[in-house]
Amino acid sequence: MSSEIEQLRSNQEEIEYLEKAIVKAMFFKSQNPRNVILADYIIKIFLDEIQSRSVQALKIYQDEDHLKREEISFLEGNRTGPSSTGNRSLDVWLNYYEKINSLKDYHEKYTPYGTPAEIFDDNWFFLHSLDDKSRIPKFSGQEGYGRYVDLHTNYMEFMNLKKIQNNKRCNFKYLDYVAFLATFDQFHEIPIFCKDRNYEVYMENLLIYLKSFFERTQPLFNLQQMEEICNRAFEEAWKNRNIKGWEFIPKILRVDPLYCVPCKKLFTNRNVYKAHKKGMKHRKNAERIAEILEEEEDFSEVERLKNIARKESFVTRLRENLGDIIEDSMNNIRKKQTRTAEELELYESDQEEPFKMPIEELKKKSETKKKEESSDSEQERPAYNPLNLPIGFDGKPIPYWLYKLHGLNVEYKCEICGNYSYWGRRAFERHFQEWRHAHGMRCLRIPNTMHFREITRIEEAVQLHKKLMQDHQLDMFRPEDEEECEDSLGNVMTRKKFNDLKRQGIL
């Protein structure tokens, strides 16, 4: 007879171990920025395991099949049949030894000889959390372990939308990839007549990628719940026509036969309506939105447009949640653009493979600790670093005197770089020739020359630039003021003074 009480105790014990394993995953998450996404996946696995074990424990508590009640009655000494002695206190011990013998027989039959019992504690759950390799998130090289987005495919698809590229009113012609990342959520600037079937396919692919990237980078976030909330808000906004760029879409195209859809105007007289349709203004508006709002269009076209608007609304919501990652992607691309081909090859060679499974290393460490306790185990522990000093090439904090010698405790802020902080004099002096400072100077339309060395404030840079321009004007050669002439008596004077005296007849 299976033990329901033992199963209940095992489920509750494993739930406690899983909670402790979540704490281990949180510490593992704080050790290295590359472990953040992996630790979130581990926590999600533990939460799913806790949920499943809680469901099993709840079923045992409810005891719908009355197995728990029978087992409790058996342990209390209730026996039936000829083996019963009639003495309840004696039957308790008979039931106890009968249960012990059944457990021994089971383990002798199914447990291999000499196999040590494996302890399923919090450390075991943590080390075996990723035994299933299919649960490990996969990222492309451009995504960089989930730190950046990779929208190159969507960018090429957007640039091949002929209606948008051929429209003179659109500002999306000849966009580079960085500009696309900055403006791909500005759907209100795209005319509605450009949102055809190809645009709908582009929106579908863009939404699929953003949802996939969001689920891979934030596994603990409930994306389905956020989508439901976004859909409810969209339905309310669509009903009130408060969505930017979709205000002029009528609620029902055939609500009134005298309603002019292209001109968004309702007439009271049929003759006036017919005369209006012959006008030049109506023809221009009809040509502008002919492909989506013709008189022959039915309600399915409005539903198609509503579906596109819903996707745009959800993409905008995802863009808000992924704003920091997209900004980092733009900065990373700008940084790559400043590198040479050799530097890019070195950068790509230094990149590690996605997720080298640090948990596998933890498994090896735990095995070595079980075999021998030596000085090697102490070296593998995290270095004691209460002062939060930089880590050297040997994996240990650098000496404090070296930290003070290089001035790494001194913070330098550069307003031109967007108030970016540089620690140490060497890093501060080196940043004047780096891409971030050069980009800031280009935004100010100031050349990044040696005159602006040590200048970190925008106001000072602008004033110095004006001063240099004024000095340049003063140093320019002016023939009127510097060219000299001599009269018949040998008097030397400037050309301007000579011409004035000559006009007066003095010379």
From TrEMBL:
<dbReference type="Pfam" id="PF11931">
    <property type="entry name" value="SF3a60_Prp9_C"/>
</dbReference>
<feature type="region of interest" description="Disordered">
    <location>
        <begin position="357"/>
        <end position="386"/>
    </location>
</feature>
<keyword id="KW-0479">Metal-binding</keyword>
<dbReference type="GO" id="GO:0008270">
    <property type="term" value="F:zinc ion binding"/>
</dbReference>
<dbReference type="InterPro" id="IPR022755">
    <property type="entry name" value="Znf_C2H2_jaz"/>
</dbReference>
<feature type="compositionally biased region" description="Basic and acidic residues">
    <location>
        <begin position="357"/>
        <end position="381"/>
    </location>
</feature>
<dbReference type="Pfam" id="PF12171">
    <property type="entry name" value="zf-C2H2_jaz"/>
</dbReference>
<keyword id="KW-0862">Zinc</keyword>
<keyword id="KW-0863">Zinc-finger</keyword>
<keyword id="KW-0539">Nucleus</keyword>
<dbReference type="InterPro" id="IPR000690">
    <property type="entry name" value="Matrin/U1-C_Znf_C2H2"/>
</dbReference>
<dbReference type="InterPro" id="IPR013087">
    <property type="entry name" value="Znf_C2H2_type"/>
</dbReference>
<dbReference type="GO" id="GO:0005681">
    <property type="term" value="C:spliceosomal complex"/>
</dbReference>
<dbReference type="InterPro" id="IPR003604">
    <property type="entry name" value="Matrin/U1-like-C_Znf_C2H2"/>
</dbReference>
<feature type="domain" description="Matrin-type">
    <location>
        <begin position="412"/>
        <end position="443"/>
    </location>
</feature>
<dbReference type="InterPro" id="IPR031774">
    <property type="entry name" value="SF3A3_dom"/>
</dbReference>
<dbReference type="InterPro" id="IPR036236">
    <property type="entry name" value="Znf_C2H2_sf"/>
</dbReference>
<dbReference type="InterPro" id="IPR024598">
    <property type="entry name" value="SF3a60/Prp9_C"/>
</dbReference>
<dbReference type="GO" id="GO:0003723">
    <property type="term" value="F:RNA binding"/>
</dbReference>
<dbReference type="InterPro" id="IPR051421">
    <property type="entry name" value="RNA_Proc_DNA_Dmg_Regulator"/>
</dbReference>
<dbReference type="GO" id="GO:0000398">
    <property type="term" value="P:mRNA splicing, via spliceosome"/>
</dbReference>
<protein>
    <recommendedName>
        <fullName>Matrin-type domain-containing protein</fullName>
    </recommendedName>
</protein>
<dbReference type="Pfam" id="PF16837">
    <property type="entry name" value="SF3A3"/>
</dbReference>
<comment type="similarity">
    <text>Belongs to the SF3A3 family.</text>
</comment>
